[in-house]
Amino acid sequence: MKVLGIETSCDETGVAVYDTGRSGADGLLAHAVYSQIALHAEYGGVVPELASRDHVRKLLPLVRQTLAEAGLSVGDLDGVAYTAGPGLVGALLVGAGVARSLAWALDVPAVGVHHMEGHLLAPLMEDDPPEPPFVALLVSGGHTQLVAVEAIGRYRLLGETLDDAAGEAFDKTAKLMGLPYPGGPQLAALAEAGTPGRFRFPRPMTNRPGLDFSFSGLKTQVMLAWRDSDQSDATRADIARGFEDAVVDTLAIKCERALDEAGCDTLVVAGGVGANRRLRARLQEMAARRGGRACFPRPALCTDNGAMIAFAGALRLEAGQRAPDAVHVTPRWDMATLPEVRAAAAAPATGAGPAPGPR
Known about the structure:
This protein has 359 residues and is of the alpha/beta class. Helices cover 39% and strands 19% of the residues.
């Protein structure tokens, strides 16, 4: 089954084609991502209306480009998957409208995909993929969550951030130290030159039970350290290293606790912060020490992309799940409400997308 995936939840336009007839990484026939970073840089953050308009301009050319790279025509597609939420409502509607139009025109099924489920399942596209049960760390600019994955589509929230997501804390910390937008990757690169231990910041909420996160206080500690420093380039790098070490340690401590609570030794890590080199090394070391493993998507598939949507959608389409005919999105969508992915029934099932309604 060849499935076109469309991702437009925020400021990246992502398109991919996944073929379920191939295994592992070979199933991804082609994918492309257009980033709007330059568009939003002068505003220091994503402007929703501008994001929606840019998706309108870029999406169809990107679909044509991706199909050409896969050596396919639209008539070769067996299904279409699109991000139906969570995300910016205008941006989501662009992708949903294009996806539903293609599905109607081609008379193929379509399915709305939960954005965070796409991230969660991205490591399963790689060779030697993990199998449930496992614990997933979803860590990005908008989310920091620990999820017990008992089966695909059967998720139990173990903990989440009470304020800033880890990626958001990276971006805001970088901004207060004068780094350009988007600040998170800039800060991580700067931390490579920092002196370990010169600045040691607290590891938030690790001295109490539970699996929730909080990064706003850490951000405040960094702001105070930067304000009271000489603000030299060397000090900026040392503070960046201290901040990154604090976030990595906090995530690793909570992940190990989550593995203990869930009673398993496999950790799946996904989301933009999952590309962080130091975080990957720390979590791999922790998992190996326990006799388990930590699984990541390739770095290019950590950030928002169409490949994860094509893959997650293909799993649900093969199970007979379909989205309702209406073009509808859900900007706020609890992943725990998703139906489990089971073997396809005799008649196609519905419910793999948001419930129809006015938008």
